[in-house]
Write the structure tokens for this entry.
Amino acid sequence: MFDIYDGGILDEAVLGLAEVDFRGNVNVSKLENRVSGPGGFINITQSTKNIIFMGSFTAGGLKVEVKDGKLNILQEGKYKKFKKNVEQITFSAKYATIHQQNILFVTERAVFKLESNGLTLIEIAPGVDLEKDILEQMEFKPIISHELKLMDERIFQEGKMNIII
């Protein structure tokens, strides 16, 4: 498997995130007193052209519901995942930018894109308040796209999405 990862055979990878900083660096390997190590995370992220990091926006008790085509945050998590600086860099935004990787960060309420000047907010969930539910839950202010749009509302409704590819 590592020959496949290191050889750049993967076109796309979807991975988790524990912390993200304003540059787009990701930490999944060291949180407070716990060191889990990176495993194959670094191998995968170094040579995959398109990467989607996924996770909840906050951690520790976050409760949300999807109702009437909107995301409702019932209880915010205790811990912010979008930090001014990550505790340890497991994924380097600088490396990704130099190698022209396409990087997205997807949470239940927001989607960010890694651009050369940092993390850019490109989509928010319907029902989410930009200031209260996103910006106040981050330790830094991201770049906000001039074309900021709502996430596809079908995600927040019951039933088939009827996606045609």
Notes: The mean pLDDT is 89.
